[in-house]
Structure formats: structure tokens, C-alpha cells
Write a structure and sequence with these properties.
The protein is mainly alpha-helical. It contains eleven helices and four strands. Strand 1 and strand 2 form a beta hairpin. The chain is globular, with a radius of gyration of 20 Å.
Length: about 300
């Protein structure tokens, strides 16, 4: 593994990791607020990518203006979808066994995936060329320049800016403070006048919007097909690594997953052979190997709350 390979893989991994972190942020916030492990989160990523492409190609006018309008409409639709899911599906299940609720989210994900693929097919769809294509080259002294796709750089910058905006929202806005209060202690927050029903609805809407932004950014970079839904499981790996109930841990976990996947996974894919057979596809399973290792060594993640049950 050369220094150039490490530096370039790390740079691309940081770009991908920023998008994973944004998706994982919605995942972690929803779990922290509602204690629901949403297995449909990947399909919300898929929803954002498919709908934004469909709208950006259907809307009239200059491509950039159509893309901006399509993104705004997609985020509004995603938030509305999350709000509707909470009101129509999740709220009636309040008080039911947690396993039943998780299975419902799994079924919901399959429904969303089926509708998306049914409407737009399983072929890879591409956004109109609204961001610069080509390769951004970062010169280094005494080393070959590092090459990163320009669309990846733009996607990472947008994801990083949104992570900062969301962090400020949770820290200083009334809704953000209410959501953090409900996430930390629901009974106390309710006693102080925080409406848990509204917090749950906003958490679902926010999680759906964050997932959709991730779908749009990844779609700009890689295109959109049904496989994009599996990114939600990579975000789950990031959340488990950082700690299910830790927002900061989810962001850090996303970055670590992105770097590890693009550095270690890509190296094994390209260079390592097992009994003479190349290990193609190892990059895709790297996040799930991390899940296994984390659950074996530190089940509550890097920053998650350790729950001790005394018998």
C-alpha cells in the first residue's frame, strides 16, 4: 500500500464519509428520540434520489434552476412522507412490542422500494449535468497529485455544510432544544411541556429529509438505482460504530466507515487474493464487518450509553 494510495483513498473516503454521516445523523436522531430502529432508512435515501432525478428532468427551464427546484420539492416531499409515516403507521403502534415496530419499518422499506422501482425501473438513472464533472487534482510536494472526482468534492462540501447547519439547529433553535430534551429524558421533557407527539413527527420528517439529501448527493456522484437503498445499512453501521444514541458518534462513525471502506476495502479488492482468487466486492462488505467487530468488542459503540442490567 503506497503513500499515494493511502492519501487518495483517505480523501475519497472523507468525501463519502461526510455523506454517510449526514444519513447516519437522521438515523441516530430518530432512534434517540423515539427508540425505533428504522430499517426503512435506506429506502428513504432511495426515495430522495429517484424523486429528485425525476423532477429535475421533468421541470422546464435551465437545468440548474430545474435541479434546485427539484431538490427543494424533494426535501418537502420527504419531510411530508416522514410526517405521514409517523402519523399513519407509527403512532397507532405506540405501546406495542418494539420488535413489531421494527418489523413494520422493514415492511415499510420494501413497500417504498417496490413503488420506486415500479415507477422508474431498476436501471441506473443519472442527474442532468448540473455540477462540474471531471477530476479535481490536489498537488502534493514530491508526490503524484491526488485525484478526486469533482462531483465528490461538491457533494462532500454540501454534506459538511449541512452537518454544521443541523448541529446549530439542534443546539440553538427551540425545536432542536425540544428534540434534544425528548431524546435525553422523555418523561421529564413531557412534564416541562414538550409535546412528544410533535417531537416524534418532526424527528421522522427530519430523518426522511436527511436521508433524501444523502440520496441526492450520492445520486449526483454515482447515479441512482435500487442498490442505493443499501446505503442505509451502511449508515446503520456508522450509527452502531458511533453509538446508537449518540449524534456526534453517528457523524464520526460515518466518516470512519467512509474512510475504511475506501481505503482498506478498495485495497483488498485490488491487491489481495485468497487461495489465488481475487476478493472482488470486499469493499461493499467492509461496513458490515465493522458492525460485527463493534458488536463483539463494544456493543454500545464508541460514544453510546452503556446500559447495565442487574439481576
Amino acid at each position: 500500500m503506497t503513500w499515494h494510495f493511502i492519501a487518495e483513498g483517505t480523501l475519497i473516503g472523507l468525501a463519502v464519509g461526510a455523506i454517510y454521516a449526514l444519513i447516519a445523523l437522521g438515523f441516530a436522531l430518530l432512534y434517540k428520540s423515539t427508540k425505533i430502529l428504522n430499517l426503512a432508512h435506506g429506502e428513504l435515501v432511495l426515495f430522495g434520489g429517484y424523486l429528485a432525478i425525476a423532477l429535475s428532468t421533468a421541470l422546464p427551464g435551465p437545468p440548474v434552476l430545474a435541479f434546485v427546484l427539484a431538490v427543494l420539492a424533494t426535501l418537502a416531499a420527504a419531510a411530508l412522507l416522514g410526517f405521514a409515516v409517523e402519523r399513519a403507521v407509527m403512532r397507532p403502534l405506540f405501546g406495542q412490542p418494539l420488535l413489531s415496530v421494527i418489523i413494520v419499518t422493514l415492511a415499510l422499506g420494501y413497500v417504498v422500494r417496490g413503488v420506486m422501482v415500479g415507477l422508474w425501473g431498476g436501471d441506473t438513472r443519472l442527474f442532468p449535468p448540473v455540477v462540474p464533472t471531471g477530476v479535481f487534482r490536489l498537488p502534493l510536494p514530491r508526490l503524484e497529485a491526488l485525484a478526486v472526482p469533482q462531483v465528490g468534492v461538491w457533494a462532500a462540501l454540501v454534506a459538511a455544510v449541512l452537518l454544521v447547519v443541523f448541529s446549530l439547529f439542534f443546539r440553538y433553535s427551540l425545536w432542536g432544544i425540544a428534540m434534544r430534551a425528548a431524546a435525553n429524558e422523555q418523561l421529564t421533557a413531557s412534564a416541562l411541556g414538550v409535546s412528544l407527539k410533535r417531537v416524534f413527527a418532526v424527528a421522522w420528517a427530519f430523518a426522511a429529509a436527511a436521508a433524501s439529501v444523502g440520496g441526492i448527493l450520492l445520486g449526483l456522484w454515482l447515479g441512482v438505482n435500487f442498490a442505493l437503498g443499501f446505503v442505509g445499512l451502511k449508515a446503520l453501521a456508522a450509527v452502531i460504530l458511533g453509538g446508537l444514541d449518540s449524534i456526534a458518534g453517528a457523524i464520526l462513525g460515518g466518516v470512519i466507515i467512509g474512510v475504511t471502506e475506501n481505503l482498506l476495502g478498495a485495497y483488498i479488492d485490488a491487491r489481495v487474493r485468497l487461495f489465488g482468487v481475487p476478493l472482488h466486492g470486499f469493499k461493499e462488505i467492509t461496513p458490515f464487518l465493522i458492525i460485527l467487530l463493534v458488536l463483539l468488542v463494544r456493543p454500545y459503540g464508541l460514544f453510546g450509553t452503556e446500559h447495565v442490567e442487574r439481576l
